[in-house]
Design brief:
Two copies of one chain form a homodimer. Chain A has about 375 residues and is of the alpha/beta class. The first copy, chain A, contains seven helices and 13 strands.
Chain lengths: ~375, ~375
C-alpha cells in the first residue's frame, strides 16, 4: 500500500475512534467497576513501537499491522480494560515535533471500540530523535514533517527533533480521551511520570474493592531505566493508605523487568514452575534497584508484576509469594519476528482468582496460568 | 569559594564583558584584516566544557579555573582573534533550559578584552541532559534551576531538559555579541550548523586575501559525529567560488578529528616528522568519512586542519601536502588532568608563513612548528 494511503487510513482510524469515544463518553473517576456476574478481563498491549521509520513505506505499514493485531485480540477477547504497557511509540525514530500523533494511532483500536484503558511509559516513549548515519551520505536528509501546531521551526526550515516529553504525551492523552484512566502521577516523582493506582470495585458495591492495580514508570529514554527511591516511598505511602491491612489483592504494572526477573528466568527451557511459550533472549533488566522489589516481596497482597520490554520472552515464573510475568510482544514495530499477541489478565471476585493467558494474532490461545494461588 | 559566590563572580565577568563589548563595538562583516606591519595571531580555545556538574561546588569552580586559563593565555599572547574549537559547554551536564548562559560564560574572557572570535560546535554542545543515576537513590533530584525567560515549566514544577539546540546557541551568540564572527551557516546543511568562511585580508588592501579560514561543524551531540556529503559539496562550491585558482592559502577548523588523524598518529612517542608534547590516548575519530578529506587532500592551498576533542593529544603531523593538528585542552571541564593551554596560530603575509605553538596556563610555550612549508 503506498505510504500516503497508509497514513490516510491510520488518520481515518483516529477520526472514527474519536467519534466513537464521544458517543460512548463516560466519566472515569480513577476507579473501575466489575460487571454483574462477570469476571473483569484486561488485555495488555506491550511494545507497539508506533512511528518507527516513519519516513519509509515499511514503518507506517508496520503500524497498520499492529492495528491489525490489536483489533483481532480485542474482537476475540472483548475485554473490559486495556493496559498499554510502555514502548507505545519509538520516539527515537520519530522526526516530527509532536509524537502524540503516533501515540494517538496506537490507542485508536481500543478507543474505537469504546474500551477504557491506561498507559505507562517505556524506554522508547520519550527518547530524542536519532539521526540515521545514512542521511549524511549522498542520500541526504528527507524533507521533515512538522505537522503540529507547536512545531518549532527555528527561523524557518529546521524542525527541532528533541522528542516529546512524557508529560506532554500523557497530558495530551488525558485531555483528548475520556476513556483514558491514565494519570501523570505525583509531581515529586518527576522525571518519572506514569505512577498511579486504579481501584477495581465489585459490581454490587463501589466501596468494596476487588483488586488494586498499581502503575509504575520504570524510566528509560530521557533518563535512566530505574524505579527511584522516591517512587518506592510513594508506593509504600499509597499502599499503606488504601490497603493498610493487606486485604485487597494487588497487581503491579511497569515496563522494564526488575533484576529479580533475571533470578527466576528459565535458562534453556520453560521449566515446570514457569508457564510460557518463548525464551529467546536474556532478561534486559533495569539499571539498578532502589528498593521496589524488597517492598513488594514483603506484601503478601501483591499477586503479580507484569512487564514488557523483552520481545522474545512471554513467561510467568513464581518469585517469593508472587508471580513475575512478561506480557507478549504486540507490535510489528521493535526488534524480533516472533508471532504477535497479547497477554490477557482476568480477575474473578468470588472466590478471588487471578488468571492469565496469551491470545495470539491468529486467534489461538496458550500459556494459561493461575496467578493467585 | 562557596557556590553562590562563584556564580556571582562568573556573572560579574559576563556583565563587565558585555560592557566592554559595547565600548569596543566594531562592525564585523565576515572578513578579518591584518594590522599594518604585524602578523595575525589567533588563539584556539578547545574543549572548555563549561556548565559541567553545575549543581555541585566542583563544577562552577572548574569553570572559574577555565576562565583563568583563557585570561592568562590572552594576556600573554595578545591575539587578534580567538577560535572556540567546540565542546564550549557540556550540555549533557546542564540542567537548565537555556545553555546559552554557560556559552556566554565561556566567551567572556575574550569579550571582556574586546577581541573578536568565532565558534564551532563539538559533540558536547547540544546534547540532551543526562540524569545522574544517583539522583534516583535516596539523594533525590536537586531543585532544578530554569532561569531563562523561555524556561519550559510543563504545568508548574518540571523543567524540560532537552538541551539547547545548535541553532539556538549560535543565534543567541550572534544576536548578543558584536565581536562574534560566527555564522549559523547555510540552511541546507542542517542539522550541521557552524559552517562558514572568514577571509583574512591584508592591511593595505581589503580586496587582497592573505588566507581563507573554513569553519566546519563535525557533528555529535544531537546527531552523528560526521561531516556530511552536503557539507563536502558546500565546501567544494564555496572554495571554487572564492579561491578558484588555489592561490590563497586555506586553513580548516573543526572539532572531531577525521579518520586521517588515526593514520598519521604517532604510536609510542612523538616522532621526527611530528611536533607536540603529549600522546596520552588514541585518536577518537569521526564515525564515517563522506569525502571531506579526499577533497582537502587534492587542494595544495590547504595548509592545515585544526581539531580538538582528544584532550590528551596536542601534536601536529604532516599528511599528504598539509598538516593535521590537535589544539590543546584549554578547559578544566572534561576528562583528563594534563596541564591546560591553548594552541596559537600566527599568519605572516609577506612572505606567507603559517606558524604555530602552544601557550600553557603557566606562561611557558612549546611545540613551535612551521605549517606552511
Amino acid at each position: 500500500m503506498p505510504r500516503h494511503l497508509i497514513f490516510a487510513y491510520l488518520s481515518l482510524i483516529i477520526a472514527v475512534g474519536a467519534a466513537a469515544a464521544m458517543r460512548l463518553r463516560t466519566t472515569p473517576e480513577g476507579n473501575l467497576r466489575m460487571r454483574e456476574g462477570a469476571a473483569f478481563k484486561m488485555v495488555l498491549f506491550a511494545d507497539l513501537h508506533f512511528g518507527e521509520d516513519s519516513w519509509t513505506e515499511w514503518g507506517p505499514m508496520q503500524d497498520l499491522k499492529s492495528v491489525g493485531v490489536m483489533s483481532a485480540v480485542l474482537d476475540d477477547e472483548q475485554p473490559d480494560f486495556v493496559v498499554y504497557l510502555g514502548d507505545v511509540i519509538t520516539a527515537n525514530n520519530i522526526m516530527v515535533e509532536n509524537a502524540s500523533l503516533y501515540w494517538d494511532q496506537a490507542l485508536s483500536p481500543t478507543r474505537v471500540r469504546g474500551i477504557p484503558w491506561s498507559t505507562i511509559f517505556g524506554n522508547h516513549d520519550d527518547a530524542p530523535f536519532e539521526w540515521p548515519l545514512d542521511w549524511f551520505s549522498e542520500v541526504g536528509v528527507p524533507q521533515p514533517h512538522c505537522p503540529s501546531a507547536n512545531a518549532s521551526f527555528a527561523g524557518g526550515s529546521e524542525c527541532i527533533f528533541r522528542g516529546t516529553t512524557r508529560l506532554e504525551l500523557m497530558r495530551s492523552e488525558i485531555e483528548r480521551d475520556s476513556l483514558s484512566f491514565s494519570s501523570d502521577g505525583p509531581r515529586n516523582l518527576w522525571p518519572s511520570v506514569s505512577n498511579y493506582v486504579l481501584k477495581l470495585s465489585s459490581a454490587s458495591n463501589a466501596q468494596d474493592p476487588v483488586a488494586l492495580m498499581y502503575f509504575v514508570d520504570s524510566g528509560g529514554g530521557s533518563y535512566p531505566e530505574i524505579i527511584s527511591n522516591a517512587q518506592v516511598k510513594w508506593f509504600q505511602e499509597k499502599s499503606q493508605e488504601i490497603n493498610p491491612h493487606l486485604r485487597v489483592p494487588e497487581i503491579i504494572f511497569w515496563h522494564i523487568p526488575s533484576k529479580a526477573y533475571k533470578k527466576v528466568a528459565p535458562k534453556t527451557r520453560i521449566d515446570a514452575q514457569c508457564v510460557g511459550s518463548i525464551l529467546w533472549e536474556s532478561v534486559a533488566a533495569q539499571e539498578a534497584e532502589m528498593g521496589m522489589m524488597k517492598v513488594l516481596e514483603k506484601r503478601p497482597s501483591v499477586k503479580a508484576v507484569f512487564v514488557g520490554h523483552n520481545h522474545g520472552l512471554d513467561w510467568c515464573c513464581p518469585h517469593k509469594k508472587m508471580w513475575l510475568c512478561f506480557a507478549r510482544h504486540t507490535g510489528y514495530g521493535g526488534y524480533g519476528n516472533w508471532a504477535r499477541g497479547a497477554r490477557v489478565v482476568e480477575i474473578n471476585q468470588e472466590p478471588f482468582c487471578l488468571k492469565s493467558w496469551i491470545r495470539m494474532e491468529d486467534g489461538s490461545t496458550h500459556s494459561e496460568v493461575i496467578l493467585s494461588s
